[in-house]
From TrEMBL:
Pfam families: Cupin_2. Signal peptide: none annotated. This is Cupin domain-containing protein. InterPro entries: Cupin_2 (IPR013096), RmlC-like_jellyroll (IPR014710), RmlC_Cupin_sf (IPR011051). SUPFAM superfamilies: RmlC-like cupins (SSF51182). Residues 68-132 form the Cupin type-2 domain.
Length: 322
């Protein structure tokens, strides 16, 4: 693989292209400043304006959300895995039908394997622009977003309509759903009963890993975060490892599955037979199966990285609170 071919598989943080109209709450006050990024795969964006950096998926999708202080992402659910780690800032995650069942504050580097089948939301509670990176299960990311009814109702007051086809129509731009496409129906009271209301005590021990705990666990070998023998529950179609300076293999390695490297702290040197390049916090590198390569911190100081590897596990079995 040539350096140019490898570079085409790396999405640099500085090259990320945001979409500010990705979802139905894009005009709703409190959510109207958020930015959505689709890095690998189309994700779950509802807007044709969303730019996709790498179209081909390795069995999962990679995305990100950027928000200024006080901005929130509205209550929604997914049919498959949704895993976040905080790249920048301080974030409050909260969940439940009305967002009151439970919550916790995530700091930089923390990772959250959100239980499937619950309504969840998040907001930037820090003092600066924040960024969270997302891993979504499945090649098609589970077929879109399931919104809490009040989110769809509120959006109509600000000119946005979500069609039953999963596409967003902006009344401010004169857009309406085409003939034969009705608006997305609201979930009924009976359907809403199927969405659990786990408490904070239910969720945190099984679904949250703190950055500094992972740094300690990775002192001699990669820390298993999600997957077989992982710190967090379930196997959602991908596994996640946390690597720090002392847990990097000394020799080049090859994987039979797709691998995605996502630096958290420090600068990393990626080397393969065709060349070498640097990976920096916020970059995303898609390594193809069978490519021999090695990783090493390229500077002194704190260094950490999340590694996501495809598995043959079903993509919808994450975070169930049994």
């Amino acid at each position: 693989m040539t350096p140019a071919e490898m570079e085409s598989r790396i999405v640099r943080y500085g090259d990320l292209r945001p979409c500010k109209t990705a979802f139905i709450d894009a005009h709703t006050p409190g959510s109207n400043q958020k930015e959505n990024f689709t890095i690998i795969g189309g994700g779950v964006s509802e807007s044709p304006d969303q730019h996709v950096h790498i179209v081909d998926t390795p069995g999962f999708n990679i995305g990100a959300a950027g928000q200024p202080p006080g901005c929130r992402n509205s209550l929604h659910s997914h049919r498959t895995a949704e895993v976040f780690f905080v790249l920048k800032g301080r974030w409050r995650f909260f969940w439940g039908r009305w967002g009151t069942a439970g919550e916790f504050i995530a700091e930089e580097g923390d990772i959250f394997n959100i239980p499937t089948g619950i309504f969840r939301a998040f907001e930037n509670v820090g003092t600066d622009y924040g960024m969270i990176m997302a891993i979504l299960g499945g090649d098609d990311a589970g077929g879109g977003v399931i919104w809490a009814p009040q989110v769809i109702t509120d959006a109509k007051d600000y000119g946005l309509v979500l069609g039953k086809n999963g596409k967003l129509y902006d009344g401010k731009k004169g857009q309406t759903p085409p003939e034969g496409v009705p608006p997305m129906p609201l979930l009924t009271d009976e359907e809403l009963k199927a969405f659990p209301e786990p408490t904070t005590a239910d969720v945190i021990p099984h679904c949250v890993a703190r950055y500094w705990d992972l740094m300690a666990l990775s002192d001699r070998q990669p820390a298993k975060v999600i997957g077989a023998n992982g710190k967090l529950r379930d196997r959602p179609g991908f596994e996640v490892d946390f690597l720090s300076r002392n847990s990097i293999p000394d020799t080049p390695y090859t994987l039979a599955k797709h691998e995605v490297l996502m630096p958290m702290r420090g600068h990393w040197r990626l080397t393969w037979s065709g060349g070498t390049t640097s990976l920096n916090p916020g970059d995303t590198a898609a390594i193809p199966p069978g490519l021999e390569h090695s990783l090493a911190p390229s500077m002194s100081g704190e260094a950490s990285l999340y590694r996501v590897v495809a598995t043959d596990d079903p993509a919808g079995l994450t975070g169930r609170l049994l």
